[in-house]
């Protein structure tokens, strides 16, 4: 009985750790630097207290590429669902 409780506690602990690692890896990155292919110059993304991104770029193309990256970080799941819905692959 004691051994089975120990095994159960170990399984629960490993499952909780794996769940935390999985969920934490899916959160958008709000700090630090990210290398995005195709940028001609650095782009600065700053989030205000409400989580609204503010982008600064030297060129319009870089601005739009960074904006797309920020949108995908926050809404990739929703974008994928809408793509599948439009193609009839949601089932």
Mean pLDDT across residues: 87
Integer count of domains: 2
Using the 3D structure, state the CATH architecture of the largest domain: Orthogonal Bundle
- CATH H-level superfamily title of the largest domain: Penicillin Amidohydrolase, domain 1
CATH class of the largest domain: Mainly Alpha
How many angstroms separate the termini?
44 Å
For the sheet with most strands, the description reads: 2 strands, antiparallel
Reading the helices and strands in chain order gives: HEEH
CATH fold call of the largest domain: Penicillin Amidohydrolase, domain 1
Explain this structure.
With 91 residues, the protein is mainly α. The protein has 2 domains: 1-30; 31-91, Orthogonal Bundle (Penicillin Amidohydrolase, domain 1). Helix content is 58%, strand content 9%. It has helices at 2-26, 60-87; strands at residues 44-47, 53-56.
Question: TL;DR of this structure?
Answer:
With 91 residues, the chain is mainly α. It has two domains: 1-30; 31-91, Penicillin Amidohydrolase, domain 1 (Orthogonal Bundle). The protein has helices at residues 2-26, 60-87; strands spanning 44-47, 53-56.
């Amino acid at each position: 009985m004691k051994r089975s409780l120990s095994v159960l506690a170990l399984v629960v602990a490993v499952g909780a750790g794996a769940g935390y690692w999985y969920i934490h890896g899916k959160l958008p990155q709000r700090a630090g630097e990210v290398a995005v292919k195709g940028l001609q110059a650095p782009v600065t993304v700053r989030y205000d207290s409400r989580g609204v991104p503010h982008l600064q770029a030297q060129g319009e193309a870089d601005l739009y590429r960074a904006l797309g990256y920020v949108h995908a970080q926050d809404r990739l799941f929703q974008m994928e669902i809408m793509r599948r819905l439009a193609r009839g692959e949601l089932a």
